[in-house]
Design a protein that fits this description.
By secondary structure, the chain is an alpha/beta fold. It has 2 domains: 89 residues; 217 residues, Glycerol-3-phosphate (1)-acyltransferase. The protein has 11 helices and 7 strands. The strands form 2 sheets. Strands 2-5-1-6-7 form a 5-stranded mixed sheet, with helices on both faces. The N terminus and C terminus are likely disordered. One of its GO terms (cellular component) is endomembrane system. This is 1-acyl-sn-glycerol-3-phosphate acyltransferase. Belongs to the 1-acyl-sn-glycerol-3-phosphate acyltransferase family.
Amino acid sequence: MASIAGISAAADPSSAFSISSAVAIVAAVAKTATALTHLRGITLTLPWLLALLVADVALSAVLPLSLLGPRLVYDASSRIAAFIWAWIQLIFSAIVVANHVAWSDFYMIQDLAMRAGMLGRCRYFAKVQLRLVPFLGWGLWAMGMPMVSRNWLKDKAELDRVFSGVVRGGYPTWLISFSEATRFTKKKYAESLAWCKKNDRPQPRHLLYPRTKGFITTVQHLRKASHVKAVYDFTIAYRRQGGEFQEAPSMWETLSVPGLSSRCGYEFHVHTRRFPIDSIPETDDGLAQWLERLWIEKGEWLESARQSWPTESLGQSHPS
Protein backbone atom coordinates (compact mmCIF):
# COMPACT_ATOMS: atom_id res chain seq x y z
CA MET A 1 0.00 0.00 0.00
CA ALA A 2 2.84 2.35 0.77
CA SER A 3 4.25 1.89 -2.74
CA ILE A 4 0.89 2.44 -4.41
CA ALA A 5 0.30 5.56 -2.31
CA GLY A 6 3.73 6.82 -3.26
CA ILE A 7 3.11 6.29 -6.99
CA SER A 8 -0.25 7.99 -6.70
CA ALA A 9 1.27 10.98 -4.94
CA ALA A 10 4.03 11.29 -7.51
CA ALA A 11 1.50 11.29 -10.30
CA ASP A 12 -0.57 14.04 -8.65
CA PRO A 13 0.13 17.34 -10.50
CA SER A 14 -0.54 19.37 -7.34
CA SER A 15 2.10 17.36 -5.48
CA ALA A 16 4.63 17.97 -8.25
CA PHE A 17 3.76 21.66 -8.14
CA SER A 18 4.32 21.72 -4.38
CA ILE A 19 7.74 20.11 -4.74
CA SER A 20 8.80 22.50 -7.49
CA SER A 21 7.53 25.45 -5.43
CA ALA A 22 9.54 24.28 -2.42
CA VAL A 23 12.67 23.96 -4.57
CA ALA A 24 12.09 27.44 -5.95
CA ILE A 25 11.65 28.87 -2.45
CA VAL A 26 14.85 27.19 -1.21
CA ALA A 27 16.74 28.55 -4.22
CA ALA A 28 15.35 32.04 -3.60
CA VAL A 29 16.34 31.90 0.07
CA ALA A 30 19.84 30.76 -0.89
CA LYS A 31 20.16 33.63 -3.37
CA THR A 32 18.93 36.08 -0.72
CA ALA A 33 21.44 34.77 1.82
CA THR A 34 24.23 35.12 -0.75
CA ALA A 35 23.09 38.63 -1.58
CA LEU A 36 23.04 39.57 2.11
CA THR A 37 26.55 38.18 2.52
CA HIS A 38 27.76 40.31 -0.38
CA LEU A 39 25.91 43.33 1.01
CA ARG A 40 27.60 42.84 4.38
CA GLY A 41 30.98 42.61 2.68
CA ILE A 42 30.31 45.80 0.73
CA THR A 43 29.13 47.59 3.88
CA LEU A 44 32.36 46.68 5.67
CA THR A 45 34.60 47.38 2.69
CA LEU A 46 33.25 50.80 1.70
CA PRO A 47 34.52 52.60 4.85
CA TRP A 48 37.94 51.04 4.27
CA LEU A 49 38.01 52.20 0.66
CA LEU A 50 36.84 55.69 1.63
CA ALA A 51 39.53 55.91 4.30
CA LEU A 52 42.17 54.72 1.85
CA LEU A 53 40.97 57.26 -0.74
CA VAL A 54 41.31 60.07 1.79
CA ALA A 55 44.79 58.82 2.67
CA ASP A 56 45.76 58.61 -1.00
CA VAL A 57 44.67 62.21 -1.60
CA ALA A 58 46.47 63.47 1.51
CA LEU A 59 49.66 61.55 0.72
CA SER A 60 49.65 62.80 -2.87
CA ALA A 61 49.09 66.38 -1.73
CA VAL A 62 52.21 66.45 0.44
CA LEU A 63 54.39 64.54 -2.02
CA PRO A 64 55.56 67.61 -4.05
CA LEU A 65 56.89 69.13 -0.83
CA SER A 66 59.50 66.36 -0.65
CA LEU A 67 61.73 68.48 -2.89
CA LEU A 68 61.96 71.07 -0.13
CA GLY A 69 61.75 68.93 2.99
CA PRO A 70 61.95 65.16 2.41
CA ARG A 71 62.09 64.33 6.13
CA LEU A 72 59.07 66.52 6.84
CA VAL A 73 57.08 64.79 4.10
CA TYR A 74 58.18 61.37 5.34
CA ASP A 75 57.01 62.15 8.88
CA ALA A 76 53.74 63.62 7.62
CA SER A 77 52.98 60.60 5.43
CA SER A 78 53.77 58.29 8.35
CA ARG A 79 51.29 60.15 10.56
CA ILE A 80 48.60 59.97 7.87
CA ALA A 81 49.13 56.23 7.47
CA ALA A 82 49.10 55.66 11.24
CA PHE A 83 45.84 57.60 11.59
CA ILE A 84 44.13 55.64 8.80
CA TRP A 85 45.31 52.24 10.03
CA ALA A 86 44.31 53.05 13.60
CA TRP A 87 40.84 54.07 12.41
CA ILE A 88 40.39 50.91 10.36
CA GLN A 89 41.39 48.70 13.30
CA LEU A 90 38.70 50.28 15.46
CA ILE A 91 36.13 48.44 13.35
CA PHE A 92 37.16 45.19 15.04
CA SER A 93 35.54 45.24 18.45
CA ALA A 94 35.63 42.12 20.60
CA ILE A 95 34.73 40.37 23.82
CA VAL A 96 37.89 39.50 25.78
CA VAL A 97 38.20 36.78 28.42
CA ALA A 98 41.33 36.16 30.47
CA ASN A 99 42.64 34.40 33.55
CA HIS A 100 43.53 36.67 36.46
CA VAL A 101 46.83 36.27 38.31
CA ALA A 102 47.95 39.70 39.48
CA TRP A 103 47.71 43.46 39.06
CA SER A 104 50.24 43.26 36.24
CA ASP A 105 47.69 41.38 34.11
CA PHE A 106 46.28 44.78 33.19
CA TYR A 107 49.60 45.96 31.74
CA MET A 108 49.81 43.01 29.37
CA ILE A 109 46.20 43.29 28.23
CA GLN A 110 46.63 47.02 27.71
CA ASP A 111 49.76 46.40 25.66
CA LEU A 112 47.82 44.07 23.36
CA ALA A 113 45.01 46.62 23.12
CA MET A 114 47.53 49.28 22.13
CA ARG A 115 48.88 47.05 19.35
CA ALA A 116 45.32 46.55 18.08
CA GLY A 117 44.47 50.27 18.20
CA MET A 118 41.94 49.75 21.01
CA LEU A 119 43.79 51.07 24.06
CA GLY A 120 41.32 53.82 24.89
CA ARG A 121 38.37 51.56 24.09
CA CYS A 122 39.00 48.95 26.79
CA ARG A 123 36.20 48.48 29.30
CA TYR A 124 36.73 46.03 32.17
CA PHE A 125 34.11 44.37 34.30
CA ALA A 126 35.06 45.61 37.77
CA LYS A 127 33.81 44.97 41.29
CA VAL A 128 31.52 47.73 42.49
CA GLN A 129 33.66 48.07 45.65
CA LEU A 130 36.44 49.57 43.51
CA ARG A 131 34.43 52.79 43.34
CA LEU A 132 35.68 53.47 46.86
CA VAL A 133 39.38 53.24 45.91
CA PRO A 134 40.84 56.79 45.84
CA PHE A 135 41.62 58.13 42.36
CA LEU A 136 41.16 54.74 40.64
CA GLY A 137 37.49 54.29 41.52
CA TRP A 138 36.57 57.76 40.36
CA GLY A 139 38.26 57.16 37.02
CA LEU A 140 36.58 53.79 36.52
CA TRP A 141 33.18 55.34 37.18
CA ALA A 142 33.84 58.35 34.92
CA MET A 143 34.92 56.10 32.03
CA GLY A 144 31.73 54.08 32.24
CA MET A 145 33.36 50.83 33.29
CA PRO A 146 30.74 48.16 34.09
CA MET A 147 30.72 47.99 37.90
CA VAL A 148 29.12 44.75 39.11
CA SER A 149 28.26 43.26 42.49
CA ARG A 150 27.55 39.64 41.45
CA ASN A 151 23.91 40.23 42.40
CA TRP A 152 21.92 39.77 39.20
CA LEU A 153 19.01 42.01 40.25
CA LYS A 154 21.39 44.84 41.16
CA ASP A 155 23.66 44.34 38.15
CA LYS A 156 20.97 44.08 35.45
CA ALA A 157 20.48 47.86 35.06
CA GLU A 158 24.25 48.43 34.94
CA LEU A 159 24.76 45.74 32.31
CA ASP A 160 21.84 47.05 30.23
CA ARG A 161 23.54 50.45 30.22
CA VAL A 162 26.86 49.02 29.05
CA PHE A 163 25.39 46.68 26.45
CA SER A 164 23.06 49.36 25.08
CA GLY A 165 25.99 51.64 24.35
CA VAL A 166 27.76 48.93 22.38
CA VAL A 167 24.73 47.48 20.57
CA ARG A 168 22.60 50.58 19.90
CA GLY A 169 25.28 53.23 20.05
CA GLY A 170 27.79 51.20 18.05
CA TYR A 171 30.61 52.06 20.47
CA PRO A 172 33.90 50.43 19.44
CA THR A 173 35.06 48.40 22.41
CA TRP A 174 37.04 45.62 23.95
CA LEU A 175 34.77 44.42 26.76
CA ILE A 176 37.14 42.55 29.06
CA SER A 177 36.24 40.02 31.72
CA PHE A 178 38.35 37.97 34.11
CA SER A 179 36.00 35.00 33.96
CA GLU A 180 37.24 33.49 37.22
CA ALA A 181 35.85 36.62 38.96
CA THR A 182 38.88 36.85 41.27
CA ARG A 183 42.65 36.46 41.27
CA PHE A 184 44.24 33.03 41.39
CA THR A 185 45.70 31.95 44.74
CA LYS A 186 46.56 28.52 46.11
CA LYS A 187 43.74 28.82 48.65
CA LYS A 188 41.19 29.72 45.99
CA TYR A 189 42.47 26.91 43.78
CA ALA A 190 41.82 24.43 46.60
CA GLU A 191 38.30 25.85 47.01
CA SER A 192 37.71 25.58 43.26
CA LEU A 193 38.97 21.99 43.27
CA ALA A 194 36.55 21.09 46.07
CA TRP A 195 33.64 22.78 44.28
CA CYS A 196 34.38 20.97 41.01
CA LYS A 197 34.61 17.63 42.80
CA LYS A 198 31.31 18.24 44.58
CA ASN A 199 29.53 19.34 41.39
CA ASP A 200 31.20 16.81 39.07
CA ARG A 201 32.88 19.47 36.92
CA PRO A 202 36.41 19.28 35.44
CA GLN A 203 39.02 21.38 37.24
CA PRO A 204 41.33 23.35 34.90
CA ARG A 205 45.03 23.19 35.76
CA HIS A 206 46.60 26.38 37.17
CA LEU A 207 43.21 28.12 36.96
CA LEU A 208 39.99 28.59 38.88
CA TYR A 209 36.77 27.22 37.44
CA PRO A 210 35.21 30.00 35.32
CA ARG A 211 31.96 31.78 36.18
CA THR A 212 29.75 31.30 33.14
CA LYS A 213 26.75 33.59 33.76
CA GLY A 214 28.55 36.85 32.98
CA PHE A 215 30.11 35.40 29.82
CA ILE A 216 26.76 34.08 28.59
CA THR A 217 25.03 37.41 29.21
CA THR A 218 27.79 39.36 27.47
CA VAL A 219 27.88 37.17 24.37
CA GLN A 220 24.10 36.95 24.00
CA HIS A 221 23.82 40.74 24.07
CA LEU A 222 26.89 41.76 22.08
CA ARG A 223 26.45 39.26 19.27
CA LYS A 224 23.58 41.55 18.24
CA ALA A 225 26.13 44.28 17.51
CA SER A 226 27.38 43.93 13.93
CA HIS A 227 30.77 45.47 14.76
CA VAL A 228 31.61 42.98 17.54
CA LYS A 229 33.51 40.42 15.51
CA ALA A 230 35.14 37.98 17.88
CA VAL A 231 35.93 36.58 21.30
CA TYR A 232 39.60 36.93 22.23
CA ASP A 233 41.04 34.50 24.77
CA PHE A 234 44.13 35.69 26.65
CA THR A 235 46.04 33.15 28.75
CA ILE A 236 48.47 35.00 31.02
CA ALA A 237 51.60 33.29 32.31
CA TYR A 238 54.43 34.40 34.62
CA ARG A 239 57.70 32.99 35.81
CA ARG A 240 60.45 34.35 38.00
CA GLN A 241 63.96 33.01 37.73
CA GLY A 242 64.59 30.96 40.83
CA GLY A 243 60.93 31.22 41.79
CA GLU A 244 57.67 29.47 41.03
CA PHE A 245 55.56 29.25 37.90
CA GLN A 246 52.87 31.98 37.90
CA GLU A 247 54.85 34.05 40.41
CA ALA A 248 53.96 37.58 39.36
CA PRO A 249 55.31 40.95 40.50
CA SER A 250 53.43 42.78 43.22
CA MET A 251 51.49 45.92 42.45
CA TRP A 252 54.18 48.04 44.12
CA GLU A 253 56.94 46.35 42.13
CA THR A 254 55.17 47.19 38.87
CA LEU A 255 54.98 50.83 39.96
CA SER A 256 58.41 51.26 41.51
CA VAL A 257 60.88 48.90 39.80
CA PRO A 258 62.14 49.72 36.30
CA GLY A 259 63.10 46.65 34.31
CA LEU A 260 61.16 43.92 36.08
CA SER A 261 62.75 41.32 33.81
CA SER A 262 66.35 42.53 33.94
CA ARG A 263 66.40 43.47 37.64
CA CYS A 264 63.96 41.04 39.23
CA GLY A 265 64.05 38.10 36.82
CA TYR A 266 60.35 38.13 35.91
CA GLU A 267 59.21 36.71 32.58
CA PHE A 268 55.83 37.41 31.05
CA HIS A 269 53.74 35.85 28.31
CA VAL A 270 50.23 36.16 26.91
CA HIS A 271 48.99 33.34 24.71
CA THR A 272 46.16 34.66 22.55
CA ARG A 273 43.46 33.07 20.45
CA ARG A 274 40.71 34.58 18.33
CA PHE A 275 37.29 32.98 17.87
CA PRO A 276 34.84 34.53 15.37
CA ILE A 277 31.69 35.25 17.33
CA ASP A 278 29.62 33.40 14.73
CA SER A 279 31.58 30.22 15.48
CA ILE A 280 30.61 29.88 19.13
CA PRO A 281 27.35 28.28 20.38
CA GLU A 282 24.08 30.21 20.37
CA THR A 283 22.39 28.62 23.40
CA ASP A 284 23.13 29.46 27.03
CA ASP A 285 24.02 25.85 27.85
CA GLY A 286 26.25 25.64 24.79
CA LEU A 287 28.09 28.82 25.80
CA ALA A 288 28.62 27.52 29.34
CA GLN A 289 30.12 24.29 28.00
CA TRP A 290 32.22 26.23 25.48
CA LEU A 291 33.74 28.41 28.22
CA GLU A 292 34.40 25.36 30.37
CA ARG A 293 36.24 23.62 27.50
CA LEU A 294 38.17 26.81 26.81
CA TRP A 295 39.38 26.93 30.43
CA ILE A 296 40.44 23.28 30.29
CA GLU A 297 42.49 24.06 27.16
CA LYS A 298 43.99 27.13 28.83
CA GLY A 299 45.03 24.96 31.76
CA GLU A 300 46.67 22.46 29.43
CA TRP A 301 48.59 25.24 27.72
CA LEU A 302 49.74 26.61 31.08
CA GLU A 303 50.97 23.18 32.16
CA SER A 304 52.84 22.82 28.87
CA ALA A 305 54.35 26.27 29.44
CA ARG A 306 55.35 25.36 32.99
CA GLN A 307 57.26 22.32 31.75
CA SER A 308 58.92 23.97 28.75
CA TRP A 309 59.59 27.48 30.00
CA PRO A 310 62.86 26.76 31.87
CA THR A 311 64.48 25.33 28.74
CA GLU A 312 62.96 27.14 25.78
CA SER A 313 61.34 30.44 24.84
CA LEU A 314 57.57 30.56 24.61
CA GLY A 315 57.69 33.11 21.84
CA GLN A 316 55.00 35.74 21.36
CA SER A 317 51.43 35.64 20.17
CA HIS A 318 48.98 38.46 19.53
CA PRO A 319 45.33 38.58 18.42
CA SER A 320 44.59 39.06 14.75
